[in-house]
Design brief:
By secondary structure, this protein is of the alpha+beta class. Helix content is 25%, strand content 43%. Keywords: Signal.
């Protein structure tokens, strides 16, 4: 009797493992995930001091992922600096842009402000 329970237990665990593996594979095939979320994401690097000055700098990177089924046009608005050009982003496409933000004695330049349609 004990041998029979042990065999059933092993078979049950194997069946369960196979079922979970099938769900995991099916889920990965059916629901792909993008590299990042839809729309705009902005990431910032660490502030770095420029020697012998009152200036600190950090790099920021803008990414746009177009989840829609149609082409969109977007640009990055930069506070106290040049805006990006107008980018055409295809359906399911991505676009990136980066710049260095500076802070000199409290006055910031090239600071990311927002994303707008163009």
């Amino acid at each position: 009797m004990i041998g029979r329970v042990a065999v059933m237990s092993k078979l049950g665990r194997k069946s369960l493992a196979v079922a979970f593996s099938a769900f995991a594979i099916a889920g990965a095939l059916v629901v792909p995930t993008p590299a990042y979320a839809c729309g705009t994401s902005v990431t910032y690097g660490s502030w770095t001091h420029i020697p012998d000055t009152l200036t600190w700098q950090r790099k920021w990177t803008w990414n746009y992922f177009n989840c829609s089924g149609s082409t969109v046009r977007r640009k990055v608005v930069v506070n106290n600096g040049p805006d990006s050009s107008c980018y055409t982003i295809a359906p399911r496409g991505t676009r990136g842009y980066s710049a260095y933000e500076s802070n000199t004695a409290g006055y910031r330049t090239n600071q990311y402000e927002n994303t707008v349609s163009c």
